[in-house]
Write a structure and sequence with these properties.
8 strands, three-stranded antiparallel beta sheet, globular, three-stranded mixed beta sheet, 207 residues, 6 helices
Length: 207
């Protein structure tokens, strides 16, 4: 399938060169060149089946001297919604974690927009093996900002999604939930880790 056909098929779910270049410009990065655009390798059948529920996202890693990683998004969009939106949620625990330096491969990605309702409240361990493939944190961050800048609305507004990444302790990363429905926390794309129980978690008593 040609890119123009894919764009017509996916409509607002198409995050192609024009939208990526708009995001890169907002980030102060060099725009994509024609030779940076990889071929679309998904089958026509899969694209037609996915168009209603998935984003079709052009991945771009940036350059060796200016990678498009999570730290780049944090530096460019900030952590204060009172100054500008979209932004990342104000937290810093992940700044020394390896996964924030990962970039996307130069290829196209299909990324589901909405969570599977039957996976709510399930642990990632119980979901594994069901055929669901967790996306990387950088893919979620990248798609979130590209889509927000193009369409003016956040992905996963009130939901968290599990990611394939883990922190240095092996705890699973999850991201999303841009807006706190209770109004307690400020807006911002959240990056968290799901703490596994270890021997250091224990209890005391009070009398």
């Amino acid at each position: 399938m040609h890119l123009k056909q894919a764009e017509a098929l996916f409509g607002s779910n198409f995050i192609g060169p024009d939208r990526i270049n708009s995001m890169l410009t907002a980030m102060g990065c060099s725009p994509l060149r024609p030779e940076d655009i990889p071929p679309l390798e998904y089958s026509d059948t899969l694209l037609e089946k996915s168009a209603a529920d998935f984003l079709l996202v052009l991945g771009y890693p940036g350059t060796a001297g200016d990678p498009v990683d999570i730290l780049k998004f944090r530096d460019c969009f900030g952590i204060d919604p009172d100054r500008s939106e979209p932004c990342l949620y104000n937290q810093d625990w992940y700044l020394k974690e390896d996964f924030v330096h990962k970039t996307l491969d130069s290829r196209w990605y299909l990324l589901r927009k909405d969570v599977f309702e039957d996976t709510r409240s399930l642990s990632p361990e119980s979901i594994a093996g069901s055929g669901i493939v967790f996306p990387s944190a950088i893919l979620c961050v990248y798609a979130f900002f590209a889509f927000y800048l193009a369409c003016g609305q956040p992905l996963w507004r009130h939901d968290f999604v599990w990611c394939s990444d883990t922190d240095h302790n092996g705890d699973r990363i999850y991201v999303g939930k841009y807006h706190d429905i209770d109004g307690v926390n400020k807006n911002g794309f959240s990056i968290h880790r799901h703490l596994a129980l270890r021997p250091c978690y224990s209890s005391i008593t009070t009398l």
